[in-house]
Protein: Hydroxymethylglutaryl-CoA lyase
Amino acid sequence: MTDFRALGLPQRVPAPEPGALPSRVTIWEVGPRDGLQNESTTLTLDVKLEFLRRLAAAGLSVLEATSFVSPRWVPQLADAAELIAALPQVPGVRYPVLVPNERGLDRALEAGIAEIAIFGSATESFARRNLNCGMAEQFAMFEPVVSRATSAGLRVRGYLSMCFGDPWEGTPDPASVAETGRRLLDLGCDQLSLGDTIGVATPGQVETLLKAFDEVGVGVDRLAVHFHDTFGQALSNTLAALRAGVSTVDSSAGGLGGCPYAESATGNLATEDLVWMLDGLGIEHGVDLDELVRTSVWMARQLGRPSASRVVTALGGS
Amino acid sequence: MTDFRALGLPQRVPAPEPGALPSRVTIWEVGPRDGLQNESTTLTLDVKLEFLRRLAAAGLSVLEATSFVSPRWVPQLADAAELIAALPQVPGVRYPVLVPNERGLDRALEAGIAEIAIFGSATESFARRNLNCGMAEQFAMFEPVVSRATSAGLRVRGYLSMCFGDPWEGTPDPASVAETGRRLLDLGCDQLSLGDTIGVATPGQVETLLKAFDEVGVGVDRLAVHFHDTFGQALSNTLAALRAGVSTVDSSAGGLGGCPYAESATGNLATEDLVWMLDGLGIEHGVDLDELVRTSVWMARQLGRPSASRVVTALGGS
Structure:
């Protein structure tokens, strides 16, 4: 069990007075990839396709569909190529896929996808464990992936994981995180998603990191946030990010997923809980909440366990 | 099943730019009363006393200990008098108890308690169902309770439930809620706790209601907030309330409790999840989180079910 408290978590970062909220938010739905990759129940290709079809029907316009990672690491997503070949074609719906390296890019290009995401690390420890290279070496690893992808006309998103704390080092220095993120963007990514992979962040930390990015010339228009709800902070942190001007938020239908490093069942921020807050704040998002709740109730049945989303529990009758 | 969406929930209330955070927050721990009263597993007097002793040892200074409600309504708290007689005496720790009416006050005075809370309603429907009287009649019912209590030197807190929505009427008018709350305070209460009894509120609503109170002459120094996490919004709403200047927050260790009207297992804001956020924001609260998590792990064993708190799940190894 990770001793989060001994690592000085949560880090103490008072929050300054924040700003106004955006009028519209893009929800980047990561359930099919970040959610399912951590689920132990193996789903069939048909179930995954039905999940994507339902998410699109609920109005979600960015669906991170799968990952071209090695099937040995993530057996759940071993059917990535078949999935991409059979994706429901819905006008206005984008299907980015995660690509860990050049081999993954080859498979993605072969499958004819239009948009990829790469997955970098904000800490040395996580880089060594998850990328099998050092912090500094990751840029060399990603450089040919991004340049080949952009040359082929693909859009590239960068993920930066462990931005607010990791289970080995505690809290990384915000200036260092921002510098790492800027270098990933400079490779040719059009957006960077800041991940709280173990869910330890609090709102002051979010605002501080966004300021650190601003100081290295990266504005909130190029940033997204990706919170996990391990410590119950995901929605508060999202509120802080929205207040700071961020308008792309990652979430997972039904709160699917989790982090294997946090030894807890708690997954991503649930899309339904996010939508409830956005609805209440009058922020546009394009999602039909009732349709989405029905989808998550259906997915919970496929996985044989209740949804982690509070909204799904309250509205879904499950 | 209540059709929350047909009731127009969540209500759309955009949030203005909020203010700075308080440097210190008083946590009003409601687990022993609001938490346990909704738990179906009956606990012994010894377990309840041990719970209170552990909560005090964890640094919580306001413990709402029990309720002098009719044992027919809340069998779990039928031992209120014995509990009060055996309360652990800890310097600086207050033990308010809930008192529904004059009969309850008689029992509370007999037990020698120093502090009571009354439980009013912000909506007509909930008043009729929970108080067996109309909205307007509740003041006549509470008037002798509060005047006799204050004459006897007792401190009196007012609860105002269903401030942000109820399962029959939808969202009440903020000006009407503020007027009802002001009248409860005018009876002689020194603090009013604004309850989101079914957990539907979002941050803009919180700020709007606090402004409505200000407009009827009730400042944030006399207000507390009481959020349920039914729709996952409790901590975000708390953040909004803190930003508006509120510095007393109700919560329940381990997220104990629930609302019988919401047909969901989700209870109060978990004290641990609140403490994690306050810790991260550098806001003083006096609570030892590790001790509190151990307490909630122990209580979860007594109740035979996992804690609803994300922090307890992540840190408690349960």
